[in-house]
Design a protein that fits this description.
Elements (H helix, E strand, L loop, with lengths): L15 H12 L21 H5 L11 H7 L10 E9 L5 E10 L5 E10 L3 E6 L5 E7 L2 E14 L4 E15 L2 E17 L3 E11 L12 E10 L2 E10 L5 E9 L4 E8 H4 L3 H4 L5 E9 L2 E9 L5 E11 L75 H13 L3 H14 L6 H15 L3 H18 L6 H14 L3 H12 L5 H18 L1
Antiparallel strand pairs: 1-2, 1-16, 2-3, 3-6, 4-5, 6-7, 7-8, 8-9, 9-10, 10-11, 11-12, 12-13, 13-14, 14-15, 15-16
Length: about 525
C-alpha cells in the first residue's frame, strides 16, 4: 500500500460503501491488504506492546493475553491465574489506537480471554460534488473502527513439553459519516512449546470470515507461522506472514532480560518497509522497546518505525495475579533453566558437607539448637524410607552423595535414592548432612517432574537448616529448587518469594546466576 492511500480523500456522504473502503484504507497498516479490495484493516493492527517491540515475531511465543487474542489463539492455553492488559498507541497520520483485555487460566482446561480494540482516524473533511463543477465542503467526520474478540485454548502437557490448540472469535465494526458496517471472523491456531527444552513452534490462520465480508468487501485473511527460542534471559522469534492476496513478509525479534526488573527488545518487520525504502532508508520496519516489571505489574513501551509514514509510540500496562495451584499439571516454564542433571551433568551442589562417622544405627533425629519464630516453617515432608543397617557399608557421606548425583544424572532415580538413604543411616544427630539429604531427594523428585513433592523436600532442607541454627552452604540451593518447582506449577509470585530468600542466603556466584535467571523467568511469567 502506498502512503497516498493513508491520506484523507474526498468522500461523498451518500456513498456508505465507498466510505467503508476509505476507512479500511485509513487503518490498514500492512501491505497485506494491498492485493485487492479488503476491509476491516484494524484486524491487521495488533496491539500487544511486548510483541510489537520484537517486530511482531510472536506466533510461537504468544503465551500471554494479547499474544493469544491477536497472534496465535493457542497461546491462551498458557495463561496462569488472572491477567489484564491495556495499551495505547499514538500513530502516524493522526490516528490513535487502544486495547483492553482480560483473561484467566483454567488449569487443565486451558485458558480463556476477551478483549476490545478501537481505532480513531482523526477528523476528516466531507465533500460533495458541486453541480457547478468540482467539490464543495459539507462538514467534517471522524471515522472509527472497533473489534471485540474472545477465545479459548487447551493444551496437552507432558514432561517433554506442551501442544496447544485454540480459537478466537471476532466481531469488527467500522463507522464513517453515521453509517456502520459489521462482520464476524474467527482465528484458529496451534502451538508446540518446549520442543527440545527451549524451542517453540506456532501457526495460525486469521480473519476467516464470510464471503460477503464487511459491507461487501472481504476480510484480510492471512496465515502466520513462527519459530521461537527461549533460553535463560534470551527470547528470539521468527515469523512468516502470508496474506491471501499479498506478498509474504518476514518478522524477526529479540528480547533480553537484563535483570529481574528490566528487559530490552528489538525487531524488524519487512512489511512496514515494503515499497518505502527509496524514501526512508533502512529505518523502515525496525522496532525497539523495553519492559519494566514491578510486583505483579509490567509496563511496556515500543517504538515502531514505518519510514515515510511516520513512527508509532505504543504504551502498555499489564497485571497478573493468582498463579497456579499446587498439584496442577506441569506447564511450560518460560525460559526456566532445568537442573543440570537433566542434560546429563551433575545437579548443582552446595559446598562439600562434612564427612559422617561410619556406623549403623537408627536414622538420626535433627537436634534443635535454636527455636525458629512461630509460623516460619512449612509442614515437614514425609519421613524417608528405612534402610536395613546391616546392608550399609562404611562409605563416607560425600562419596555416596557424589554417587547419588551421578546416578540421578543418568536417570537411575531408584538407585540414587538408595545411595541417599544409605547416607542417612550413617549420620549423627544434628549433622548438617541431614539437610543435604533433603536437598538431594528434592532434586531427584524435581527431575521426575514431581514438583509438589520436590518443593516439599526442598522446604524440608530449609527447615533442617533453621532447626540446626548454623550456616549451611546449601541453603540458597534449597530455596532455588523450591522456587523453580513453584514456577513450573504456575505460581510465579510464590517462586519470586522463594528466590528472594535464596538471594538473602549469601549464595555462591554460580548459585546467584541461577537465582537471577529463575527470577527473570518468574517476572516474565507474571506479564
Amino acid at each position: 500500500m502506498s502512503s497516498r492511500a493513508l491520506r484523507p480523500a474526498p468522500v461523498r456522504a451518500r456513498s456508505p460503501a465507498r466510505a467503508c473502503v476509505l476507512l479500511a484504507a485509513l487503518v490498514a497498516a500492512s501491505p497485506a491488504s494491498g492485493g485487492g479490495a479488503a476491509g476491516a484493516g484494524l484486524l491487521l493492527m495488533d496491539s500487544g506492546v511486548r510483541a510489537l517491540g520484537m517486530g511482531g515475531a510472536y506466533a510461537s511465543l504468544a503465551g500471554d493475553l494479547s499474544g493469544g487474542l491477536q497472534w496465535n489463539p493457542a497461546g491462551l492455553a498458557f495463561l496462569r491465574g488472572n491477567a489484564f492488559e491495556a495499551a495505547y498507541a499514538s500513530m502516524y497520520q493522526g490516528m490513535n489506537q487502544g486495547w483492553l483485555s482480560a483473561g484467566r487460566g483454567l488449569g487443565r482446561f486451558g485458558g480463556v480471554g476477551a478483549g476490545i480494540s478501537y481505532l480513531e482516524a482523526g477528523t476528516l473533511v466531507a465533500t460533495e460534488a458541486d453541480p457547478a463543477g468540482g467539490y464543495s465542503v459539507t462538514g467534517t467526520f471522524k471515522p472509527s473502527s472497533r473489534v471485540v474478540s474472545g477465545g479459548w485454548a487447551w493444551s496437552a502437557s507432558s514432561e517433554e513439553g506442551s501442544l496447544a490448540a485454540g480459537a478466537v472469535g471476532k466481531w469488527v465494526e467500522e463507522s464513517i459519516m453515521e453509517r456502520d458496517a459489521g462482520a464476524g471472523a474467527i482465528d484458529i491456531g496451534v502451538m508446540a512449546r518446549r520442543v527440545f527444552g527451549m524451542f517453540s513452534l506456532g501457526a495460525a490462520y486469521q480473519n476467516i470470515g464470510s464471503a460477503h465480508g464487511l459491507a461487501g468487501y472481504r476480510l484480510p485473511e492471512q496465515f502466520r507461522a513462527g519459530l521461537g527460542m527461549e533460553r535463560g534471559r534470551w527470547s528470539l522469534g521468527l515469523d512468516f506472514v502470508s496474506p491471501r492476496d499479498g506478498e509474504t513478509s518476514l518478522k524477526t525479534g529479540l528480547e533480553v532480560a537484563l535483570n529481574r526488573a528490566l528487559a530490552v527488545r528489538a525487531g524488524f518487520d519487512s512489511s512496514l518497509g515494503e515499497g518505502l525504502g527509496k524514501y526512508s532508508g533502512i529505518e523502515s520496519g525496525f522496532s525497539t522497546g523495553l519492559g519494566l516489571a514491578f510486583g505483579n505489574y509490567t509496563f511496556d513501551y515500543a517504538f515502531v518505525s514505518a519510514g515515510l509514514l511516520g513512527a508509532v509510540h505504543r504504551f502498555g500496562l499489564s497485571a497478573r495475579w493468582g498463579g497456579g495451584r499446587p498439584g496442577a499439571p506441569p506447564r511450560f516454564a518460560e525460559a526456566v533453566p532445568a537442573p543440570a542433571a537433566a542434560s546429563g551433568g551433575s545437579p548443582p551442589s552446595p559446598a562439600p558437607e562434612p564427612e559422617a562417622a561410619a556406623g549403623a544405627g537408627p536414622p538420626p533425629a535433627v537436634r534443635a539448637r535454636a527455636r525458629p519464630a512461630p509460623g516460619t516453617l512449612a509442614p515437614r515432608p514425609a519421613a524417608p524410607r528405612p534402610v536395613i543397617a546391616s546392608a550399609v557399608p562404611a562409605v563416607p557421606a560425600d562419596e555416596r552423595y557424589a554417587a547419588a548425583d551421578r546416578l540421578a544424572g543418568q536417570g537411575s532415580f531408584a538407585a540414587a535414592r538408595g545411595e541417599l538413604d544409605a547416607v542417612l543411616r550413617t549420620l549423627k544427630a544434628g549433622d548438617q548432612g541431614v539437610c543435604g539429604y533433603w536437598l538431594r531427594v528434592g532434586r531427584i523428585l524435581h527431575l521426575q517432574r514431581r514438583c509438589a513433592e520436590a518443593a516439599s523436600h526442598y522446604q524440608g532442607a530449609v527447615n533442617c537448616a533453621v532447626l540446626l541454627g548454623a550456616p549451611w552452604p546449601g541453603l540458597a540451593e534449597a530455596w532455588y529448587g523450591k522456587g523453580m518447582c513453584l514456577l513450573e506449577d504456575g505460581d510465579a509470585s510464590g517462586a519470586l518469594s522463594a528466590l528472594d530468600s535464596g538471594f538473602a542466603a549469601d549464595p555462591a556466584p554460580a548459585t546467584r546466576e541461577r537465582l537471577e535467571a529463575g527470577a527473570d523467568a518468574a517476572r516474565r511469567r507474571q506479564r
